[in-house]
């Protein structure tokens, strides 16, 4: 194998401002173009109600599985660069955003560093993460032993997550 060893990573993408679908598509393409990185799997896109601050537009969300030679903090820096290039403004926590890219789980990595906590500390409470993650969890390698489908089903009872029809967008 040439280059650095690659790790599997799951990322959550979300947008609720502007061209939501366009931002998700552009982010997926930018992530696929990162050095030593390939997209392994992509969930469907879902529309979800905002959480924490409910007075904002609905979100579009999806989850990607990447295989990357980047280290976790390097990938985080790239995710933040991609967010910024697509108009992300960091104001109100959990507020509206053009693009949000979160690292959910990174193969064989656990971190409690303030800049990057892995696995993502809130992912198990969010249907907008768990439902799309369950679709592609079969790609997991070196990940925590989780029944993501059961977790998604349980959390989705209280949080509406509906498939987004891209054809009607």
Secondary structure elements and their pairing?
Blueprint: E1 7-15, H1 20-32, E2 37-42, E3 46-48, E4 59-68, H2 72-85, E5 100-106, E6 111-113, E7 116-118, H3 127-136, H4 148-156, E8 161-163
Helix pairs in contact: 3-4
Shape: globular
Domain count: the total is 1
What is the first-to-last residue Cα distance? 41 Å
Radius of gyration: 15 Å
Residues in helices, as a percent range = 25-40%
**What's the story with the biggest beta sheet?**
6 strands, antiparallel
Tell me which CATH architecture applies here.
2-Layer Sandwich
CATH class division: Alpha Beta
* SS elements, strand count: 8
Query: Structural class from helices and strands?
Result: alpha+beta
Enumerate how many helices there are, as a single number: 4
Q: How big a fraction of the residues is strand?
A: 25-35%
Order of helices and strands: EHEEEHEEEHHE
Q: What is the CATH superfamily classification?
A: 7,8-Dihydro-6-hydroxymethylpterin-pyrophosphokinase HPPK
Question: Which consecutive residue ranges, at least 5 long each, have pLDDT under 50?
Answer: none
Mean residue pLDDT: 90
CATH fold naming: Alpha-Beta Plaits
